[in-house]
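step=encode ok
step=design start
structure_in=
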């Protein structure tokens, strides 16, 4: 998480500098302290109406040449009245909003109270306790030894939301402070209020050792949420195992999940624990739980009810203390009605429910996620040691990313950008680049115009094969080339049927 230092340049700072007392101004003193050494960026705000404006340029150059320790450095100038709280508030807020736009990942804000006017310091306090949470620092002269020192300013109160019209709820802010330092939550890139509320719900439920059901379309980040819940729970030091229920073979599912005894089948020379005993004390994430057979659902229900697993072969029972986090993109209620999912298991796992929205319903999140992916790709290419041009998005490309529906959600967004990045030669990914590298056609097949006449015969078999190939490629992309899951996604009875069709249309893995 990037650490951002923000301070006003006060008249007293310039006055100390003009008198060559370089180490006694409050701002300079703080920037020489160990607190400033951890900062990644330094943003200084300056009022043009300051009485010591003539010293500003030399003061800033001194900071650049003598004080900075590798931090990126920015100056923001304003023309405001020293006692105009509203203007000070808006000016400072504009700086922070620009910082947020420039940084796709989350940031930590650090405010300096001891430089600038009392009105400016008051605004920092309001920000730190409300809309822009952060750490407050103060610099002061110690009465005992007359040395200027810096420390964290402990402000023992919170700002009442009712006094600030656009203040976000205090509870959200408090949870944001708590989970913002957990890497697994950090990896869920967002700025939308919808996602922040869901992250808060995930953080709230994490300490309670109850089952969690995560609902959402394919590619919405269900596994990321499961990992975040585990990492903020009391099971953090225990295993976290992900099981793709779509990929479990029916014949071996009992043994895979619950273990087996020596000699359970030909070739089993040793006992096997299975996933549940391997994960004793930890968390199991059952991805696409709706794909489990009714027989496995029955055994899973016993684990949830009694904490018992019965291994294959000798039927011996073992205790397994495992928390279940399940996920699906299917309608489990309808599956219960259709007799495809056990009703008692449904109510067992349907305790704490998180509904993840598709990317198309997350506002500008698609842009900041895309920028985050591109930044990672630029960094990865850099580590190879080759010469490179830092790749960026054009403005039309950003607009397209924001407006496109992304049926494959975040996973589709990532792979589309990855393809556009790999083939890019100009350093600028354009709107056309994004469209070119979409696997999902912009115009869906069922909306295509049909042109058929006696004069223009067609090869329906060839058109059908092209359509099949297009959708199989998309489905393989969504399932990370899992044939079993792809077959189910496309309505085929088995992956063997899918394999035969792939050969016919010319798809090889």
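sequence_out=
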């Amino acid at each position: 998480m990037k650490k951002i230092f923000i301070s006003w340049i006060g008249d007293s700072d310039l006055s100390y500098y003009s008198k060559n007392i370089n180490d006694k101004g409050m701002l300079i003193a703080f920037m020489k302290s160990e607190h400033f050494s951890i900062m990644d960026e330094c943003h200084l705000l300056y009022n043009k109406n300051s009485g010591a404006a003539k010293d500003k340029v030399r003061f800033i150059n001194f900071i650049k040449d003598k004080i900075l320790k590798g931090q990126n450095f920015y100056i923001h100038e304003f023309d405001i009245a020293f006692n105009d709280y509203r203007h000070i508030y808006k000016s400072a807020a504009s700086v922070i909003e620009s910082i947020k736009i420039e940084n796709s990942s989350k940031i930590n804000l650090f405010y300096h109270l001891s430089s600038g006017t009392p009105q400016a310091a008051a605004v920092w306090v309001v920000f730190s306790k409300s809309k822009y949470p952060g750490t407050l620092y103060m610099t002061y002269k110690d009465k005992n030894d007359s040395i200027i020192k810096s420390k964290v300013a402990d402000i023992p109160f919170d700002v009442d939301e009712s006094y600030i019209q656009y203040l976000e709820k205090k509870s959200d802010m408090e949870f944001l402070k708590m989970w913002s330092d957990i890497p697994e939550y950090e990896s869920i890139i967002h700025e939308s209020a919808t996602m922040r509320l869901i992250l808060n719900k995930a953080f709230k439920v994490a300490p309670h050792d109850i089952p969690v059901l995560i609902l959402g379309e394919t590619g919405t980040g269900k596994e990321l949420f499961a990992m975040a819940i585990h990492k903020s729970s009391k099971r953090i030091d225990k295993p976290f195992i992900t099981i793709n229920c779509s990929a479990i073979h029916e014949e071996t599912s009992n043994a895979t999940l619950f273990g087996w005894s020596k000699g359970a089948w030909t070739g089993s020379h040793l006992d096997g624990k299975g996933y549940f005993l391997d994960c004793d004390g930890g968390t199991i994430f059952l991805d696409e739980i709706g794909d489990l057979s009714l027989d496995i659902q029955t055994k899973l229900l016993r684990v949830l009810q009694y904490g018992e697993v019965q291994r294959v072969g000798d039927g011996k029972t073992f205790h397994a203390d495992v928390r279940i986090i399940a996920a699906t993109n299917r309608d489990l209620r309808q599956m219960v009605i259709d007799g495809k999912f056990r009703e008692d298991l449904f109510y067992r796992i349907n305790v704490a429910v998180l509904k993840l929205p598709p990317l198309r319903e997350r506002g500008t999140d698609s842009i900041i996620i895309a920028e985050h992916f591109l930044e990672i790709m630029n960094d990865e290419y850099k580590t190879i040691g080759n010469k490179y041009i830092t790749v960026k998005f054009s403005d039309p490309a950003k607009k397209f990313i924001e407006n496109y529906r992304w049926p494959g959600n975040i996973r589709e967004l990532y792979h589309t950008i990855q393809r556009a990045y790999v083939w890019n030669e100009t350093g600028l990914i354009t709107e056309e680049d994004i469209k070119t590298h979409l696997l999902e056609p912009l115009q869906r097949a069922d909306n295509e115009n049909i042109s058929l006449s006696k004069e223009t015969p067609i090869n329906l078999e060839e058109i059908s094969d092209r359509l099949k190939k297009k959708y199989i490629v998309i489905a393989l992309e969504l399932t990370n080339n899992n044939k079993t899951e792809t077959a189910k996604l496309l309505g085929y009875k088995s992956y063997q049927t899918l394999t035969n069709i792939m050969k016919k249309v010319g798809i090889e893995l």
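step=design ok
step=annotate ok -> Residues 360-436 form a domain with the Helicase, Ruva Protein; domain 3 fold (CATH 1.10.8.60).
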